[in-house]
Amino acid sequence: MSLTEETRAPAVLPDAEAFSLIDAGGAAVPEKQRRGYDLPDIDVLKELYRRMVIARRWDTQVTALTRQGRLSTYPSARGQEASEIGTVAAMQDTDWLFPTYRDSIAVWSRGVPTAELLSGFRGDWHCGWDPNEHRTAPQATPLATQTLHAVGFATAAKLKNDPIATVAFIGDGATSEGDAHEGFNFAGVWQAPTVFVIQNNQYAISVPIAKQTRARMLADRAVGYGIPGYHVDGNDAAAVYTIVSEALERARSGGGPTIIECLTYRMEPHTNSDDPSRYRDAEDVAAWKDKDPIDRLEKYLTAQDAIDDALREEIAKESEDAAAAMRDAMNAEPALDPMELFEHVYNAPRPALLEQRNALKAELDEISDGGRVN
Ligand SMILES: Cc1ncc(C[n+]2csc(CCOP(=O)(O)OP(=O)(O)O)c2C)c(N)n1
Ligand SMILES: [Mg+2]
Which residue of 36, 81, 192, 262 has the lowest C-beta tally within 10 Å? Predict the structure, then answer.
């Protein structure tokens, strides 16, 4: 089959200016700059605000527990709440999320219980929850692999006439991986119902975006794959929610994939084992603090008289309850069975794995017999 005007996607580059509905000062963007979009309903904005505030408290508590040695590692999403929560708030329960290690607050916002979510970061099970129950895949650490999972899953759903969409989060640095190219390309070819949300938080650990690409912006890649591309202010929850909602609707109704670049900033170190003062300026961080996603939505809602002290207190209480529940869950010592390490690796265990399993079993038996392992 050769490409016809019908099967070929229009060659349109996304707008250079990031799409925004509420600016950094908390004011609505003038109507003539909104490209025909309205702001979401005030109740939607209040819900986005509530979920972002609680998510930030949750994220702060995980970082604190990491410092206390309760978790081995944690990649914080502080500063990225609008991209994370704006995206998952636009999803239906039946849609599937394919997250990365960065996206814990999004996974939590999908309803995965804290203890199950943090089990991998604590060094227990890699994926402590049931993906089918929450329609949320395990958090991918090998960069960009989740794009392939999301496209494969979406294509299978399409073949079964199951009207769902998948969302794959991906970092700016991970778009340099071959898997990202394969994911984007086959999504275009198969018209998979997948929405790729590139969180351009400016860094891949210490490597700035300028060392990843000469392209004007990452959203420009979309045109080369024949996929609609959007460049969005990733600190504006209203804008992220609006564009992701539209892309998901298009995907579920047979319109194929979308690539959305959310321009944001990683406020914290890459993980608790990183020292960003070695590679980025404090002024840069301060400038992004002025674009904070929660502050701007709070300012907008306050100006609209949509938020009062009673609501602030209610949200603060919910946040503290979530943090307290996390402390309780993480301060409990689960009894772990080291032999579980070998579960669910292969459908039929391979000889080399069985050998390792037996060796560990023998060592553990020796310990329980009072013997010493050297
Ligand atoms: C295939 C692969 N190569 C290298 C790594 C090591 N690594 C972990 S995170 C990271 C940076 C990724 O940056 P980005 O995609 O921008 O995501 P962010 O951490 O900023 O959310 C790298 C290189 C990895 N996890 N997987
Ligand atoms: Mg990054």
Answer: 36
Model pLDDT for residues 293-343, shown as the tens digit of each residue: 999 999 999 999 999 999 999 999 999 999 999 999 999 888 888 898 898
Q: Which CATH class is domain 31-331?
A: alpha beta
The whole-angstrom separation of Cα 137 and Cα 228 is: 25
**Residue 260 is inside which H or E element, if any?**
strand 258-263
β-strands 203-204, 207-208 pairing: antiparallel
Tokens matching residue 289: 């603090």
173 lines ligand 1 (CB under 6 A): yes
188 lines ligand 1 (CB under 6 A): no
307-341 per-residue burial string, b: 16 or more CB within 10 A, e: under 16: beeeeeeebeeebeebbeebeebbeeeeeeeeeee
For the record, the structure tokens of 361 come out as: 């079993």
Threshold 0.90, pTM exceeds: yes
**Closest Cα to atom 26 of ligand 1:** 142
